[in-house]
Design goal:
Helices cover 19% and strands 34% of the residues. By secondary structure, it is an alpha+beta fold. Strands 1, 2, 3, 4, 5, 6, 7, 8 and 9 form a nine-stranded mixed sheet that branches. It has a two-stranded antiparallel ribbon with strand order 10-11.
Length: 198
């Protein structure tokens, strides 16, 4: 039987450079010598009715960084983390109750630089067994699933813009139902979609 994640696994071997929140804004001049903090985010893939889905979160509205936005489980690498993969797995356990031993790490995507000065490594992981989602109170308002096919179809992405800190900033979006997926999450998914469609 064909592995439903085979196209995703093949996509990991395709060439592709790092991305950033500034990709669609070439006029932005980034300061030389800026210090970026390492972070890891998990792109968790779960089978639902034999269809692969990505698990995403809606961040709590009171958080300092990206309040109310759609995000992957994850966060900055702590001193206790062996690497960014360990950080992504730890954060997914803390944020949505996904045990790290229940994740088969498939590989990583190129890093993504955020406006909040993180260099984020997306970690693709297959969830081995069903688990009970437990959103972390105070940090995660909601956990939901999106079909992998939806977020790996380049035709479903669009570029929009808004004013931010006095400048017009463009960014990718890939809405799904009531969820407005945009910014770093959409940019990472767009990079994945480009790889899958190659």
């Amino acid at each position: 039987m064909t592995d439903p994640l085979a196209p995703l696994i093949r996509a990991l071997s395709h060439d592709g450079g790092a991305s950033s929140d500034f990709d669609l804004n070439p006029d932005v001049i980034l300061p030389a010598g800026r210090m970026l903090r390492p972070a890891g985010v998990l792109v968790p893939i779960e089978m639902r009715n034999d269809i692969p889905h990505v698990i995403l979160t809606k961040r709590a509205s009171h958080l300092k960084h990206h309040p109310g936005q759609i995000a992957f489980p994850g966060g900055k690498q702590d001193d206790s983390d062996a690497d960014v993969i360990a950080a992504a797995l730890r954060e997914a356990d803390e944020e949505i109750g996904l045990p790290r031993e229940n994740v088969e790490v498939l590989g990583t995507l190129p890093t993504h630089e955020t406006v909040t000065s993180f260099t984020m490594t997306p970690v693709l992981g297959r969830i081995k067994h069903p688990f009970t989602v437990k959103p972390e109170p105070g940090e995660v308002d909601e956990v939901f699933h999106v079909p992998l096919a939806h977020v790996t179809d380049p035709d479903l992405f669009s570029v929009q813009s808004r004013r931010w800190r006095g400048h017009r900033r463009s960014y990718f979006t890939v809405p799904f139902g009531p969820y407005y997926i945009w910014g770093a999450t959409a940019r990472i998914l767009r990079g994945l979609a480009d790889r899958v469609s190659q």
